[in-house]
Amino acid sequence: MVQRMTLPRALRSACVGGVLAYVALAGCTPDDNAPAPTTSVAATEEPISDVTTAPAEVLPPEKPTLMTSNDAIGARAAAEYFLSLYGYVFQTGDLAEWDAMCDPESEFCNGVRDAVDDHVASGNVQSGGSVAMSVDKVIPPSGALEEYEVTGRIDQESYEIVDSDGALLTSVAGDSELSTSVFLKMDESGSWRVRAVVIGAEQ
């Protein structure tokens, strides 16, 4: 069984909840050598609004009806749908559909699940980061290979992560044309299970 998990820069940053990309603002302390002001101007206090902008509702990706077929068409639709869930789970913390498609032994699935759990527990909020896959080919099961292999390229849009107080933790530029392979098979219940995902490897 293939069990490789390789994450590119933007996806890896999302998986750690932006902690490693935390940017501390510098250069904001006063200069000790700066001359003291000779005049003072009475400041006019402005009322502080307590109205905050509510985050936009994040809708789950639409599940394609083509996923019901146990063939190359169904495998392609399932792989595209699964990767579209990546950004959604970090934006919402909703892992229901992700878990429903994950093989329990998949390192990639478990790694993302753990990262989302840590992300939610810390109170961080992500906006953006949606992922879309463009499929190049679907390789059917053959010989010892039990899964369909769906290969192609993925694009991830830019995203920001803020903490529970709304302070910006990290802002990450998107990635595009990342080579990707998804290994998956349909189980006895008629549900697709993702066994492994390889991102960033040459096809």
Automatic annotation (TrEMBL):
Residues 53-195 form the DUF6318 domain. It holds the Pfam family DUF6318. It comes from the Bacteria. The keyword 4Fe-4S does not apply. Residues 1-26 form the signal peptide. Keywords: Signal. The keyword Signal applies. This is DUF6318 domain-containing protein. It comes from Sanguibacter antarcticus. The lineage of its organism: Bacteria, Bacillati, Actinomycetota, Actinomycetes, Micrococcales.
